[in-house]
User: Which sequence fits this backbone?
């Protein structure tokens, strides 16, 4: 089938005029000179949307236009297959699209006249936006690189991928590692590719409403189709090969591809895809290269879309970075070109399926038993605490554990840029920031959420990470009746953490003098817990420091306990913490153990 697909476009304009067009697919619609169908109006983007042929009909891909594309009254990113009764709205135009019978390449194709001059001129307005700021806002995506997803059909992405790209997700069976799977070898790529293409076609022919299917039901349906297809392949001659290939191909179509086996491996704590054929993992604190690879860069892009789009996040050339999360709570960060120079890359921070406790940290040597008791006392006394540390040092894990120690009758509001905290507590309200939408509006920042949280009657506010001007609002919350609040930030030591807080507060442009900021910090923050990752990969709490006030304009710190790397022991300060005054120092068993260690 080498011919072109011809469609009939019925175009209705705001002024009542009507035009019927016959055009070949693919067809780029917009007001730019490169468009096959030009609609010259300021409400139409230079490249507004793309009409193209899909497996089962004509599809519409919005190209990130400012005004957007609507089908049947609802804004879409991708929609299809289009029916003749569907109404597409773009700027001042209403379009109905009808696909004509297939035209062979040997047949003469009808000419595709352009919109009459008088109609095109009627679309023009007195405003010439070709050089206006609006023209630069429109997404100038290349038509050949359009890979957008229809939010109404999560399976749509797989149906639209070119056959050459659908074999890329090299997944092992659930019972085997990717390194030992026979069907991941290069000589078997053709088999997987052909089975994957046949699977997509088979699922299309069955006309399933995949958006209504659960993940498990969709996986079962895919496995059933693959099993039927394998019966026609004599080279798959053993039951073991059959089972392995069924799992592999079905996961390629409806799962996360090669990432699934890595996510299932409990020894892996971080997955780093530097490029499609270069994957590193972190095992027990050590980074090593993994043999699993994707077959092309587009495979990595489709995985990123599959994760981010259902969460309401977007990633494209105009917004090439995204933070998202997987269903198990693992955190994902993805970067694509033009920011990533060598192709799409992603980083996944896995979190243990079995939530750690304070006792687990003590057992693993990450925390001294007396330091664990000290942190528990700080939580019970509702001291404001900051967990500081470097990337991957375990700050979020410790914050989860501290949150679990909060009394169940207290109300907690958590605030995060991308939800990662999974605090095991009966009374938790989780808030998540929202990035800008395709129209450049709708953003909700961490700072907005901190301000709103103070109206939600919280006993404690937990901010996943303070990295900007929200530091000022967090300090205000700590100073206005929300004792026992917690947060994390990046710093190499408790003293560096103080300096970083001052810098972040200055980013709020509140006009506060440095002395006022330091007094605010000293009255708001009580404890700084330093989390570190050693060169050997071991994560541990290296110090617990108390803020004791200001002297000569400098915030004073008293280290209560610290880790000695030379002796690999935890040492206690002989001077007791100032908050011991709030405890019964005569009868409290923790206080007695503290002084007995001196």
Assistant:
């Amino acid at each position: 089938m080498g011919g072109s697909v011809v469609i009939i476009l019925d175009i209705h304009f705001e002024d009542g005029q009507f035009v019927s067009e016959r055009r070949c697919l693919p067809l780029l619609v917009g007001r730019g000179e490169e468009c096959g169908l030009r609609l010259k109006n300021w409400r139409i983007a230079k490249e507004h949307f793309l009409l193209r042929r899909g497996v089962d009909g004509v599809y519409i891909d919005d190209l990130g236009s400012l005004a957007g594309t609507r089908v049947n009254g609802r804004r879409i990113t991708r929609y299809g297959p289009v029916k003749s009764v569907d109404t597409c709205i773009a700027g001042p135009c209403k379009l109905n699209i009808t696909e004509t019978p297939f035209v062979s390449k040997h047949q003469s194709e009808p000419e595709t006249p352009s919109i009459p001059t008088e109609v095109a001129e009627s679309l023009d307005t007195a405003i010439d936006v070709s050089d206006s700021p609006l023209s630069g806002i429109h997404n100038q995506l290349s038509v050949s690189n359009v890979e957008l997803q229809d939010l109404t059909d999560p399976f749509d992405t797989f149906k639209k991928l070119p056959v050459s790209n659908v074999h890329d997700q090299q997944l092992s069976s659930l019972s085997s590692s990717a390194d030992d799977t026979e069907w991941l070898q290069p000589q078997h790529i053709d088999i997987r590719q052909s089975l994957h293409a046949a699977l997509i076609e088979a699922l299309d022919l069955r006309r399933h409403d995949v958006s209504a299917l659960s993940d498990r039901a969709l996986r079962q349906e895919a496995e059933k189709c693959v099993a039927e297809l394998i019966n026609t392949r004599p080279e798959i001659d053993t039951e073991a090969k059959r089972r392995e290939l069924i799992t592999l191909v079905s996961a390629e179509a409806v799962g996360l591809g090669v990432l699934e086996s890595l996510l299932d491996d409990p020894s892996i704590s971080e997955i780093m895809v530097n490029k499609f054929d270069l994957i590193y993992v972190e095992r027990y604190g050590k980074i090593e290269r993994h043999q699993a690879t994707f077959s092309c860069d587009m495979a990595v892009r489709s995985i990123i879309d599959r994760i981010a789009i259902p969460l309401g996040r977007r990633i494209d050339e105009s917004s090439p970075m995204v933070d998202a999360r997987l269903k198990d709570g693992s955190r994902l960060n993805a970067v694509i070109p033009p920011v990533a120079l060598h192709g799409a890359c992603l980083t996944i921070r896995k979190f243990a399926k079995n939530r750690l406790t304070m006792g687990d940290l003590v057992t693993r040597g990450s925390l001294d038993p007396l330091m664990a008791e000290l942190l528990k006392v700080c939580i019970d006394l509702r001291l404001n605490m900051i967990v500081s540390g470097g990337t991957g040092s375990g700050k979020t894990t410790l914050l989860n554990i501290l949150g679990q120690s909060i009394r169940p009758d207290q109300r907690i509001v958590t605030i995060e840029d991308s939800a990662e905290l999974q605090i095991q507590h009966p009374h938790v309200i989780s808030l998540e920031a929202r990035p800008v939408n395709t129209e450049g509006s709708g953003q909700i920042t961490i700072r907005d959420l901190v301000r709103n949280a103070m109206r939600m009657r919280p006993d404690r506010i937990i901010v996943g990470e303070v990295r900007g001007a929200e530091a000022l609002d967090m300090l205000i919350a700590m100073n206005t009746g929300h004792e026992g609040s917690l947060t994390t930030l990046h710093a190499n030591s408790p003293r560096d953490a103080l300096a970083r807080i001052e810098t972040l507060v200055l980013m709020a442009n509140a006009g506060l003098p440095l002395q006022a900021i330091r007094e605010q910090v000293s009255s708001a923050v009580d404890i700084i817990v330093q989390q570190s990752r050693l060169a050997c990969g071991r994560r541990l709490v290296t110090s617990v420091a108390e803020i004791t006030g200001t002297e000569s304009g400098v915030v004073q710190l008293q280290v209560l306990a610290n880790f000695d790397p030379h002796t690999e022991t935890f040492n206690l300060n002989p001077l007791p913490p100032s908050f011991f005054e709030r405890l019964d120092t005569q009868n409290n068993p923790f206080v007695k153990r503290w002084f007995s260690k001196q």
The chain has three domains: 6-137, 156-349, 358-596. Residues 102-180 have pLDDT under 50 and may be disordered.
